[in-house]
Amino acid sequence: MADEIRLGCIGIDSSHLSEFTKRIKALNESGSTTCRVTQFWTDGKHDWPNPADIEKWSADTLAMGVTRASDLDKMLSSVDGVLVLAVNGNKHKDLALPALERGLPTYIDKPMTCSLEQAKSILAAARKSKARAYSASSLRFVTEIPKLDFIKLGKIVAIDAYGAGETLDMMPDLWHYGCHSIEMVDAVFKASGQGPGVARVSAVRSQDRHLVDYEYRDGRYVRMRLERKGTWSFGATVHGEQAVQQFVVDFAPVYTRLVEGMVRFFEGGEAPVSLRDIVENIAVMEKGNQSIEESGAWVEVPEIV
């Protein structure tokens, strides 16, 4: 492992800039990682509606010894890895490509993109340059998933999941918060050894929630409620051939677990999730949004290779 792994952040209009920097700094100071955020860069075009928040996140990050880069190319030439943290997923492809084209290990914050075409472009660029890259929701790292007894469950046939359903105008319907519950379900299937393979999706929107159904190519079924009126919470009921198990997410440790996976990745470890699998999650959200506009009609999800 390198004596120091220098990380650069792109985008400052998300609380993740200071939150991730703080957690990486704590892991570095405890001797748990050689990663350290050294620079951040912004193009000055911010999408978060409250400028005071952006100023605070930037000031807090500067106070932790991080410097503001004036030029993206110079920053990319002086770091060992990149975090794309702009709040607007519509911008992630353009912000990530310069790092990917240099072959730099790259983490792209959620949602990776708000377009399947853009997600495929990121996947193609990473494969072309052999850049290691991934994206992830913190809900992929909930501690309750490893505690499921997959032997007692047997093969999973269905999951009833729920989560928060916050929306933003810049990322309508499933884009902003849908990824959290979708990735949580994906993580359950990954832990069970059953993996990806969504075939079709149906979704509807009401004032208080989104309801999402999707079916896998092997017959597995997911029913999901993304709630705006109820309490902010995530969880699932997992239906196996032999048993049923439930969990409610304790959110307290998930941010730290997300960052722990991040630093292991920048240190050269395997990404916590395949970039290809994240592209499939993007496809579910895009086709789900299409279904919403078509009054809940089933929409096929293309197979991702």
CATH-defined topology of the largest domain = Rossmann fold
Which structural class is indicated by helix and strand composition? alpha/beta
Contiguous low-pLDDT stretches (5 residues minimum) are none
Give the strand line-up of the largest sheet: 12-11-7-10-9-8-13
CATH architecture of the largest domain: 3-Layer(aba) Sandwich
- The CATH homologous superfamily name of the largest domain equals NAD(P)-binding Rossmann-like Domain
Number of strand elements: 13
Q: Please state roughly what percent of the residues sit in beta strands, choosing from under 5%, 5-15%, 15-25%, 25-35%, 35-45% or over 45%.
A: 15-25%
Q: Give the N-to-C terminal Cα separation.
A: 32 Å
Instruction: Count up the domains.
Output: 2
Helical stretch count? Answer: 9
Inertia-based shape: globular
Give the helix level as a range of percent. Answer: 25-40%
**Order of SSEs:** EHEHEHEHEHEHEHEEEEEHHE
Mean pLDDT: 97
Rg calc: 19 Å
Describe the structure.
By secondary structure, the chain is of the alpha/beta class. The protein folds into 2 domains: 5-137 and 254-272, NAD(P)-binding Rossmann-like Domain (Rossmann fold), CATH 3.40.50.720; 139-250 and 284-300, 2-Layer Sandwich (Dihydrodipicolinate Reductase, domain 2), CATH 3.30.360. The protein is 36% helix and 23% strand. The protein is built from 9 helices and 13 strands. Strands 12-11-7-10-9-8-13 form a 7-stranded mixed β-sheet. Helix 1 packs parallel to helix 2 and helix 5 packs antiparallel against helix 9. The radius of gyration is 19 Å and the shape is globular.
